From TrEMBL:
Species of the source: Methylobacterium crusticola
Protein name, per record: 1,3-propanediol dehydrogenase
Cofactor(s), names only, from the UniProt record: Fe cation
UniProt keyword terms in alphabetical order: NAD, Oxidoreductase
Keyword Oxidoreductase (UniProt): yes
Residue stretches making up the Alcohol dehydrogenase iron-type/glycerol dehydrogenase GldA domain: 8-177
């Protein structure tokens, strides 16, 4: 039995893509627009999905999703949806195509501009449920967007904002671990750390939701035992299944909110000239936010240690640092080409981000500035002094 019903309808099993046509029929849809990116097309996954699901060869495809989804791409895909007479969106790929698909479905039935619906601009009550159905097919194990109520989209002015509403949760998630077999080690590591960060940040959120916390800890446990294996051996089916479940569980817990790691990575992700991968940013920033949050979350850190398989009293942030090194991820933001001047300009955006309010410890401009310096490799001492405060 592959069906899970939690927040939405989820098909989770090897070979689940064969169920796409059946799920479309249950939604009363017959002509989806496939929203994806060029890398997914080049990997042959769209042809594979069409064949397995029995979709017509002429099913339209929008493959121009940028690495970080943009307002311009949302509008282009929305126009394609209308021109092709589509009645559903089939999102295939990592977090970018999945988030873009949510934006497309939104603007099919909602008037422009897109910014009207951003969470920090009071957009949630403006989002109605009258959107075409979205089916989400993740091809990486990290974002959790297949069950998330948010889409992160960079507007024309450069702001990367969250669009959040229950109706943005895809109608169906098709989670097929076979789609991640052979995913390159670097991408496996970066997306895997995205899942790890989701599980940790949602668990540390001060909102009261014990079921979500239990799910977050299970997801973290799976990721910690499987991520290194998946990076070492892309064909390790058991590790791939655990990582896809960890990513799904991270997404299931988004209801609790995230934290400063995501506030900072969202701000950095809107950079117009640098290609900064969201999961990699999370991996680099996470240890510093963990050190900052520690004084306010001591009891929860004990549960994190258990889920991570660490001994009593072990430093959780140091364990994440070690994991990043083992996975071959960058040691700091400076290595990724980020400068202190750029981070300084992004402090207000990070503070205003929708994730800031649910950080495990209250955080404002001074703290965000110190965390950026620490993640750049320039302010480690300052970050540790904040942690002791």
């Amino acid at each position: 039995m592959s069906l899970i019903t939690y927040l939405t309808r989820i098909q989770f099993e090897r070979g689940a893509i064969r169920l796409i046509a059946e799920e479309l029929a249950l939604l009363g849809a017959a002509r989806p627009l496939i929203v994806t990116d060029r890398g997914v097309v080049a990997a042959g996954l769209i042809d594979r999905i069409r064949e397995a699901a029995g979709l017509p060869a002429g099913t339209p495809v929008f493959a121009e999703t940028p690495e970080n989804p943009t307002e311009a791409a949302v509008l282009a895909a929305r126009d394609r949806f209308r021109a092709e007479g589509c009645d559903a969106v089939l999102a295939v790929g990592g977090g970018s195509p999945l988030d873009l698909a949510k934006g497309v479905a939104l603007l099919v039935t909602h008037e422009e501009p897109l910014s009207r619906y951003a969470a920090i601009l009071g957009g949630l009550p403006r989002i109605r449920p009258d959107q075409p159905p979205v089916l989400a097919v993740p091809t990486t194990a990290g974002t959790g967007s297949e069950v998330g109520r948010a889409a992160l989209i960079t507007l024309a002015d450069g702001r990367k904002l969250g669009f959040i509403a229950p109706s943005l949760i895809p109608n169906v998630a098709i989670c097929d671990p076979d789609l991640t077999l052979g995913l390159p080690p670097g991408l496996t590591a970066a997306t895997g750390m995205d899942a790890v960060t989701h599980c940790i940040e949602t668990y540390l959120s001060p909102r009261h939701n014990p079921p979500a916390e239990a799910i977050a800890l299970d997801g973290l446990s799976r990721a910690m035992r499987a991520l290194r294996r998946a990076v070492r051996d892309g064909g390790d089916v058991e590790a791939r299944e655990d990582m896809m479940m960890a990513a799904l569980e991270g997404g299931m817990t988004f209801q609790k909110g995230l934290g400063a790691v995501h506030s900072m990575s969202h701000a950095l992700g809107g950079h117009k000239t640098k290609r900064l991968h969201h999961g990699t940013l999370n991996a680099v920033i996470l240890p510093h936010v963990l050190r900052f949050n520690a004084p306010a979350c001591a009891g929860k850190y004990a549960a994190l240690r258990t889920a991570m398989g660490l001994p009593e009293g072990a430093d959780v942030a140091d364990a994440i640092d070690a994991l990043n090194r083992d996975l071959g991820l960058p040691r700091d933001l400076a290595v990724m080409g980020v400068t202190e001047e750029e981070c300084e300009a992004l402090v207000p955006w990070a503070v205003e981000d929708h994730s800031t309010a649910t950080n495990g410890r209250p955080v404002g401009p001074e703290e965000i500035r110190a965390l950026f310096r620490a993640a750049l490799g320039a302010g480690e001492a300052g970050a540790r002094s904040h942690a002791r405060a």
